[in-house]
Write a structure and sequence with these properties.
single chain, mainly alpha
Length: about 240
């Protein structure tokens, strides 16, 4: 068994931005050559095939090197035990803070980048679903709910808050800020919400770091995404 290895800055950037570049590039290229699949569904299909497997694969590979077998141990090693109700409580409180940010920071940021958002090609507007058959829209909603509400946030928390943050300990408290900023910037497919994402996920990341329990931020992340999916569908 090898000891946990610190990740260099260059490797940290590569681990984060190579997968997101691949998935965003694939999403854009496929979106330019076809319009039969809604862009929302197309992105999450790309993420299912490319992004999520790469992030989990990185964790599995690191665990193989550090602990001798493929597992999620490199993402969850050193986590402190916390009662399930405390995890839900902290997650709910952080979700409440995220709600506050959604009615203060998010609208302000949307106005700040409104001119840029209007330049996005119509196909890549996730709200453009009216032209598709009802059955395909329902499939899109279900897939969006499952993968944006659960699979995506769980994978990202394991990768960012679990694996990456624990492998840049030399930065101390700053590791939380660094990884949170990089986490926000890695959303190439949604580039106009960085201020809001940092405002929401920095407290959650710090809570996970302070409590030594990534399940706190995982609950918050899932709740935020589930809420956004519900609001999207209702709208």
């Amino acid at each position: 068994m090898r000891p946990t290895q610190e990740i260099s800055v260059v490797r940290l950037l590569l681990l984060i931005f190579v997968p997101t570049t691949l998935v965003t590039g694939t999403y854009v290229v496929l979106g330019m050559v076809q319009t039969t699949v809604p862009s929302l569904l197309l992105f999450y299909l790309c993420a299912t095939v490319i992004l999520f497997p790469l992030e989990i694969g990185i964790i599995l590979h690191a665990s193989k090197q550090e602990y001798g077998k493929c597992s999620l141990r490199s993402a969850v090693s050193g986590q402190a035990n916390l009662s399930w109700w405390k995890i839900l409580l902290y997650g709910a409180l952080l979700f409440g803070f995220a709600g506050l940010m959604s009615i203060t920071v998010a609208p302000w940021e949307a106005k700040l980048f409104i001119s840029m958002q209007q330049r996005i090609p119509p196909y890549f507007d996730w709200n453009m679903l009216g032209q598709y058959p009802r059955s395909l829209v329902i499939i899109t909603y279900v897939y969006y709910f499952v993968f944006n509400g659960f699979v995506g946030p769980i994978t990202e928390e394991l990768f960012f808050r679990g694996y990456l943050t624990s492998h840049v300990k030399r930065f101390g408290k700053a590791a939380v800020l660094i990884v949170t900023i990089l986490f926000s910037l890695y959303h190439f497919w949604a580039p106009f919400g960085n201020i809001f994402r940092i405002a929401v996920f920095l407290p959650a990341a710090y809570a996970a770091w302070k409590l030594k329990n990534i399940y706190v931020s995982m609950v918050c992340h899932c709740l935020c995404n589930i809420f956004s999916v519900i609001m999207f569908i209702m709208a």
